[in-house]
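Objective 1b. Sequence-to-structure analysis of Serpin domain-containing protein.
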Amino acid sequence: MKTTFYMSLLLAGLHAVAHGQLPPNHHNGHDPDEPKHHMHHRVEAIACLKLVPNNADFAFQFFKEVTLEAPNKNIFFSPVSISTAFAMLALGARSTTQTQILEGLAFNLTEIQEKEIHEGFHNLIHMLSHPESGVQLNMGNAIFLTEKLKPVKKFLDDAKALYQLEAFTTDFYNPTEAEKQINDYIERKTHGKITDLVKDMDPQTVMLLASFVFFKGNWEKPFKPEHTEEREFFVDAETTVKVPMMHQMGRFDFYFDEELSCTVVRLHYNGSATAFLVLPPKGKMKQLEQTLVKETVRKWSDHLFQSLLSLYLPKFSISGSYEIMNTLSKMGIVDVFTDQADLSGITGNPDLKVSKVVHKAALDVDERGTEAAAATADEIMTLSLPPTIEFNHPFLMLIFDRDTNSTLFIGKIVNPTITS
């Protein structure tokens, strides 16, 4: 019988607050060390570039599986958080268990070596945790171990060096105390956004692995709170709810995808994060979510153009909480959850398996932002009213980091009045 441990993946608060096309080099400051800094940044970007297509494939595959499990519900998760935690777990996995994890994360092991994967994640974490300006993005990993469990020094050293792992001793025989220790740590690291991540802990737990991401972004051009008004949101053919709808008129990156019949609007945050808002026709979400792949998003990026629009976007808060063992098993990560698990790289013996994987994510979208210094009133001057785009029925929200092209978050907003 294998000893079990929990894995909890955690993604925290997203304060999305709206828009504007970034001028070239917008987020380059006037740092005297800038050339050196950028050179280092570029080297790291190249190192994690190899991961980007695989991470994107994993993100959209995971999204498809989750939407099949919960077809008419809000969805919000951080693919980069899940990938990072399982890549770190692969450091301590051996034989088939390790191969399944890496292939389940969409890596082709004939094209990329395990060492390159870990180095790529190391650089990705570093780049995402040190954004140049405007965005607050913290990523990290923590391991909570029972005192009896003595991890292999090489695993701890490598995980600390590559994945910024923090390690803590925990008394799981006292589940209430253990839960408090873990939840307090996560709440602190996610600035209060993620609370009560773990509950009903099994006293037989010997190890818990937590991965967290916290993101707070200000829209490059904020919405004005006085323009927010209550309007209708059509959840489905039978259900309509009232939501506070933010409004802004101006130039937006816009594209209409004729193939998928969906409208795409891109909003920038200050710094390097960007959001794609994708509105399919009413009742056509299923078609969009099952055909969404990284090539689609690349096509949207390539075809966006500046257009004068009257934009309505709901103000909302949602969170997603998932036990994702089943989802990952469907994606080929199987043995690590069974008595076939080989995690001997963590403890030196193969009597360990993962018993539970929890992922929690939260998103806030509101008007707030840092006012751009330059006045932009003149762009509104138009003789005819611009077309109106209103996100008043289920839509997708994809948040990317432009420096690394990483998929930070994927959300499906079915009902913005339901917070979890």
